[in-house]
Amino acid sequence: MEHSGLSFVFLAVAFLATLLLYPGILSVARKQNIVDNPGARKLQRVPVPVLGGLAVLFGMGIAGVAAYAVLQDWIIYKILLLLVLMLLLGLWDDVRDVSASLRFVLEILIVWAIIPIFGLRINDFHGLWGLYAVSDTVSIPLTIIAGVGIMNAVNMIDGVDGYCSTYGIMACSVFAVIFSLSGDTAWMVMAMITVGALIPFFFHNVFGEKSKMFFGDNGSLMLGTLLALFTFRVLCSDSPCSGLEGSGLSPVALTLATLAVPVFDTLKVMVFRMVRGVSPFHPDKTHFHHLFISMQLSHLFTSAIIVSINMLIIGLLLLGWKLGASIDLQFYLVVLLALLFTWGFYFFMDGERRKNGGEGSALFQRWSEIARKHNFTITRTWLLLRGIADSPLLGGK
Question: How far is CA 3 from CA 65, 73, 217, in A?
Answer without folding.
Answer: 16, 13, 33
